[in-house]
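S2.1 Query sequence (Aminomethyltransferase family protein)
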Amino acid sequence: MNADMTVGTKPTEIAHRLALQPHFRTLRLGTPFQPRVEALSSRQEWYDWAGYKAPSVLWDEELEYFAIRSQAAVFDISPMVKYRIEGPDAEGFLDRLTLRDVTKLRPGRVHYTAWCDDDGHVLDDGTLFRLSDTRFRLCCQERHLPWLLDSAIGFGVEIEEETEEIAALALQGPTSWSVLEAAGCPGTERLKPFDIGTFAHEGEEVTISRTGFTGDLGYEIFVNAGHALSLWDRLFEAGKLFGIRAIGYAALNRARIEAGFIVANADFVTAEHALRSDRVRMPDAIGLGFMVDLKKGYFNGRRAIEKSRANGGPAQLLVGLEIEGNVPAEHAIVYHNAKREVGLVSAAIWSPTAKRNIAIASLDRRYGRPGTADLWVEIYAMRELQYIKMMKRAKIVPRPFIKLPRRIATPPGRF
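Output structure tokens follow.
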């Protein structure tokens, strides 16, 4: 706001002038699919996803969840940050940047990975798509362009954020492949988990991967923003007989917890967002130690991770919990012997599919090993306008909490 706007001007006039400025009128961005999503929103429950207006619930959270598990659910993942990384040194750069061995990632494949700062603390996790020998797409939760550009010094690569240019949908659930078949997407039946394919749409090439965040049969579809609405219409027309439904994040969150997936800055704090030194996490602390490939050359954080392992590992461990009863324990404190505070639950639900009360929690290393006895969670439940404190027993269990055979079946079954 400049001085001319404030001197001698009434507060109501200032507010009016501010309201006329575009960045005040549009508080959150709309994705290329926004007109279709808005039209289906009967609840008008939105949240901010990386500056975009994203649906928390569209029509009914529980029914949206069951659309994932029994039909075909569509979730707009366009706000997911996407980087194009291309050039003769792209493979070497990404191998240096991330934890996994990128030389083993073939063109036409995807892998789940993470990357750390020099102290071995996780900056983010995401999916790396190898679209060709020299072209990759990195998808993640947070924006990292300055970090990527600094890390690329000395490498022959081009790095460009393409979040706005590339729209994306997650199509998940047991009838998801049937929708793709009906939409005329040949070859999708041959895609194995983490495979990439393409199909034609309005004279352009659409990328589809057999990936997702639900632990179910599912795909992620990437299209140029200009063709987003026609792609949406094509899928929904083809999916009429297969129960296709649009969903919000609340339903997706239920499914991802069942699948044991973690969310940056929800289940762990990324290195760039942590305000306290004890909040950062190494890969071993959040269940990503399997990614660390010490057989390859140097990568960011390698020395720190090796040193941590030599000293016994991280101070905390992220674990799955099964809790007695049916009251979700979200953000509950975890105790040992019902007295000693040993951790915190970051995500929890009553699982309709597993028929269990489940949670993801970060525990002190001493108490985070399988078989640890006498764990309790402190849950506060609303009963007739009063919170009731409940102490419920908990035990450490493996993640994922559910394993659906259809997730990996190739070719997928028809439903």
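The first helix runs from residue 3 to 6. The CA atoms of residues 182 and 196 lie 19 Å apart.
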